[in-house]
Amino acid sequence: MLEIGQSETLLPADSTAWRAAFAKQRALVLRDAIPVDLMRKLTMLIGRSHFVSNRIDGLGHREIESPPVAGKAIDLLLSRSSLFRWLEHTTGCESIMRVGGAIARTWPNSEDHLDWHDDLNTPESSSRRLAITIALDELEYEGGLFELRNVGSSDPLFSFKHDRLGTAVIFEISGRLEHRVAPLISGGPRLVYAGWFVG
Ligand SMILES: O=C(O)CCC(=O)C(=O)O
Ligand SMILES: [Fe+2]
What we know:
15 strands; Oxoglu/Fe-dep_dioxygenase_dom; binds 2-oxoglutaric acid; Jelly Rolls; 2OG-Fe(II) oxygenase; Pro_4_hyd_alph_FE2OG_OXY; alpha+beta; seven-stranded antiparallel β-sheet; 199 residues; four-stranded antiparallel β-sheet; binds fe (ii) ion
């Protein structure tokens, strides 16, 4: 059990199963990582958030929270050295120094999605070690599947549909892996925090 509460972080005492899961699929599912009471507060903040169009050249489109308010609150919640050390131990990623991200929203339309990419596309992004996404809503939707694969492989190593409020996915960022988010077919929107642990 792992829980990122408002004032304390509960981390699993025995990480053996987590290490084995990450070794196999290069990703972890942290079910209910943000507890319900804290999630409720974040939902209230997000209710006042403003979103702008965010086109990522060659990859796709989505909306992101701007100015970042709820996203900054989540950055702060994740900025805990005990969590950084647990992630290093569990994933083998070295020296995580900080975390930062944004709230992203996709709708069922002809443009919202992200094609295969590795999150290492700019010089500033080259120190990204792990990515984290957290479900911030639980509206039903079809499509919107997240997939992670080895570059050049056609079989995903890991796939996940975010539909449980407060559940997080952590996955490896490296030149040997790529990930994508499929377009929504109906329902939604899909609302997640998407950030990176940076070394
Ligand atoms: O929405 C997701 O699940 C992943 C987002 C993503 O890949 C990114 O922001 O780079
Ligand atoms: Fe990404």
